Amino acid sequence: MFNFLGLGRSGKPPATATVVDLGTTEAKAAVVDLMTFNPTLLGFARGSYPEGALLSGLVSDWGQFVGTVGEVLRTSSLTVGFIPQDLVYSLSGEFIKSFTVDLLIHRRTHGVIRGQEKLEIKKEVERLLTLEVQKEFLALTGNPQGQFKVIQRSLVGLETLPGTRVDALTSIHEPEFKASFAISFISRQTERLLMKLTQDLKKRWFLTCDQTFMVGELLKRQDPGLSAAFLDLGGQVSDVVIFYRGRVLGERTIPLGGKDLTELLSQAFRLPLAEAEIKKKEGNLLTVENTIEYWALLFQGLEKALKEISAAPIPATWPLYFWGGAAELDSLRSQALEKFLKTHPQSILRNMSWQKLSGAAFKANFSSEKEKPDEFQAVLATVSLIPQRYATSEL
Amino acid sequence: MQRVSSESLSLWAILQKIKSLEDREVEVVFSAVSPLLENLLGLKVLKEAVERTGKKLTFLFEDRNFAYLSPFFNEAAIKGATAVEVSPAVEEKSLAKDRFRFPGINLKFNRRFLLLLVPIFLVVASILSLYYLATAKVVVYLDSEPLAKNLEVLAQPGQKNPAPEPPTIPASEISLSLTKSESSPSSGQKKIGEKATGKVTIYNKTTLAVNFPAGAILTKARINGDDLRFLTKAAVTVPARTDEAKAVSGYLPGTVEVDVGAESFGSDYNLPANSDFTLVAKPTSDFVAQNLGDFSGGSERQITVVTGEDQRKLLEATSLSLKDELKKSILTKVVSGQVADEASVSFDLVSKTFDKGVGEETDRLTLNLEIRAKALAFWQSDLKSLTASLLTSFVPEGYELFGSDQEIEIIKTEVSGTHLKILTRAKGFIVPKIDPDEIKRKILGKDVAFVSAYLNSLSKISSHSLQRTPDFSFFPFLPFRAKNLKIEIIRK
Hints:
By secondary structure, chain A is of the alpha/beta class. Chain A is about 35% helix and about 30% strand. Chain B is of the alpha+beta class and about 500 residues long.
């Protein structure tokens, strides 16, 4: 079932790899050993880009960008003793998007699928998947002519009509069946960026993962029928993903992040940006009053994103898992939400249960020779799922 | 309306800028590099946030590549782009250009060195030109004698290659079937008709009952013509006479009625009632017969029928014309370079069907005839190569057959069993034997005077001529390259 219709990838995975998280304000790297039962974390490092090097996925200073990523790779391997040749890109929402596609396949006949029919179905699946990605790309960017690259298409369900789940294509005898795929795709612009980055770093591009989607996938290990929303509060943008009954419904990016809070402090207290960043982390100068406008905008963006992803209203009691830099200001966020709900009593955020995720939440899924860094949640989710992701993906 | 440039600004920063403006109407200008352009959700959040403050926001997309965003914002101020369009293809091209930059080559020449270089270059170029480009043609004329021989060659189906002993060349069999339908008038005459029938009463004057078998003959005498004959249709017994005193004769004859039919066709047999008949071989004193009713149904007419002679003549004529057609058609099946003689064509009767048999009535007789023709064809080139090689055996010592243009004349062809016998006349020319390569070796690169003297010294050569290109008097040599010197031999 993994290599459905030969759409999956084959070949031997490398023994070690570096997982690279290209965030909007900083890059993170984690060196992992993939030969152990669970992937083993050997080393990790992080580094911020110089101011203005990267703006919401647009690289404005290529040299500084490559320099920062290269330095982070080098630092992550300092205690390991070597730098792996293969890179696993763990991308946040401004670079990558995921969603699930259900395809209804109508056969001309019934009985076991084989030979020429199998080839025809494969071709049709390819065509329909491309159309679905095109529609999703249009919804995300408004661009009807957008160019993209599908980097993962995992078969997540196969059922004959009506509603009978089957384990493999060979079990299908009916003239109609439904195949569900989890799709991750990137724009051609992002593909070119990653190719050039890999080339300039003199490495091999091994795998690409959607890190927000990966967090959901990892939580599915405890609850296969997971229904929840996910929010990655990043430096410049915040990514929103919805899982419904274990399937990723879609992903949106709100162009608001922790950096905007830094600017808010800088302007309010007339501080240089670097100093404002320190004050933000200390949390002394931030109050609900002086940040409510920021939080309100974030909540409104979150509401809009959730509504766009899920056509049906999502139940208010759903958990909302969140992490990232701004998640450290959870107390402030909580107070701000309370204030926001007073003026927005109908908000769908009212009864959602906000649950902060830390790296420790994924403890069981990988081994580590180091102390597990709490702020590496999404990266660690990717690390944990590399073997599974490799088996079902196609670069 | 006030304008805000979005370049390099985050959503938050744009929003703060807009809030700081006093105007109620604001226009946000997006350039091609604005990070918000690829995020439809971000643009919607921005617009709604601004409108919540009571201000009116419009977007201006400077780059036409983002014109597709206009339908998403109803009042969207897509006011046409003035910015320079940069397509992804152009970007890639410029990226590649930067990546692969080759160092330039900068050579500096000394002017005096150049002046010295030019004449050297010209001399070298002239020498090389004469060496590589100069050509010459030497034409050698030889006296020739004709050589003609009559040769018999067999063309044999199944033969793969020409063989000299016995002289045989391969032949291939061509076959063709044609069908023809012809008709001719019938000449036979025949009478047909209906026979008259009726009933007669036979009178027995004897004292014994007499049996008459079916087919007993009754005749009716006529004044003109032969007697008319009738046959009884059933066996009957005529009872003996019975005594009757009252009768004049003293008795009453025994009688019996029987159906009769005329022996032949014709209306003459339609006799009226009360006609008298005589029974063959019975005297009228003992037996007579008479019909009580008219005989009827007798008739006669003459028809045209097919005769055996008609069929023979039609078959002969049709075969003749069909064979003529087949001969013409089969020879058109011969491909270019092949030869097939009319004499080699043979025929097989495939089928013949007459629409009427002998004696059947018809005015015209029709015949469908199918004949298959077979011919033996051979390749002219095979005949030519074999006769040329045969001719060689007649060439005297010190001579050779000139060229390959021997004339081959086919005198006669004759089918003999499965093969074709071809009588040919082969004609060629013999010339004294010379070695052009030897001559070439001797004169290559030599001056014209030497060449002339050398060729004159060869007794086998009748005369010669020489053409040089270019024909420079200051350079009286033949080419140095064998490839550029051509020896042509012509017979006189």
